[in-house]
Amino acid sequence: MTPxxxxxxxxxxxxxxxxxxxxxxGSYTILINAKLSDRGRIEAYEHALKHIENEDFxxxxxxxxxxxxx
Length: 70
Known about the structure:
Blueprint: E1 5-10, E2 18-22, E3 28-33, H1 38-53, H2 62-69
C-alpha cells in the first residue's frame, strides 16, 4: 500500500535539509528546508521518501537507518 505523504517547504531555523514526521493516521509529513536550491529540495524529498519506503520509523538504530538511506 502506498502511504499518504504531505510535503511542506519551510525555513528551518537551525539548518538541516529535511524532516519526516509519521502522523497519527499513518500518513507522513515531509518538511523541506526552503533555503535549499531546487535540486537540493528534490534530493531532500527523495531522501525522506527512502526513509518512508524502508519503514525506518519502526527501527531504532539511527546509524543503520542513515547508512541504508545513502
